[in-house]
């Protein structure tokens, strides 16, 4: 189906306009057509894409369905933290990992030399995740370090660095953001890696680097190098110098630890294409979130929970859209469209069958007899194939 979209004159016209940066209106696409169009654009433009939507459940649905359209492309879900703005509560471990994986993948585009990322990726983000302040990109890059086979490095120095970027010392590494030491062996699990790694030293020389299964301790594969990026969205080393020793520090204090506001947008390479699901929905939800945040802030100050000078923990929508408009961006929906686009008109809504398979098969058969090409997209494809063969 993507081949059919990519050959359509209306799509080719849109593609040329995006390349020239001349898209100013929404594409007015129906929701079901947005991901195949996104997939087509990624294949043709070969650049990173950020897909921004309003709510978290919509982002999860889009990310899940994206696996069908782009099975071989790296995809990242950039989730929103569970706590509300100004609410002091722990971030979930999965949320922290997924966000750090996306930040690390984008940071790879800014690395110097031949290690710079070249393959396009797709990141799906709900609005509140984008609004949430994160570790400034410069701090992230400076704090990341690649360890290579045969490199001379003091293990004690590595341990100090890992603590400073948020890693936790444990007896046995079982989760990301942890490290352990047994003599000349260091185990560490970087957030961007699917498995922990074991570094064995001969003196100060890195003798071996290998990924291993934390449950069985068996080696998965040997590595030539390993990127260790921050394990939190703030630097523990900075927090230690700013916060009282007995203070339990977490992401709640990020805007206090890092004064410079930063968001996911700061990590995007310059050639990124930003696709907004529906600008109207995103803007309305932003207004709702900001109103909620202002109310919660005042309540927390009145109750003595929050100091009056506590920094704002989010980037406002007006600031975000100003940044977005300085980049290449397109609305997939219709809130900024003056009229329905030619590409939207190329997609016609089909009959709603609601599980009625016989009318579906009859209509499909009629299309075939008339010489019409039909594309069937379903999670029940094997069953439909079977029924079609019987038909």
| Helix/strand class | alpha/beta
Q: Which quaternary structure do these chains form? A: single chain
In terms of DSSP E residues, the strand content is: 15-25%
Please provide the ordered H/E string of secondary-structure elements: HHHEHEHEHHEHEEEEEEEHHEHHEHHH
Number of strands: 13
The mean pLDDT is: 93
DSSP helical segment count? 15
Q: Please describe the biggest sheet, giving its number of strands, its sense, and whether it closes into a barrel.
A: 6 strands, mixed
pLDDT < 50 stretches: none
Instruction: Evaluate the radius of gyration.
Output: 24 Å
Q: Which key phrases capture this entry?
A:
5-stranded parallel sheet, single chain, 391 residues, 6-stranded mixed sheet, alpha/beta
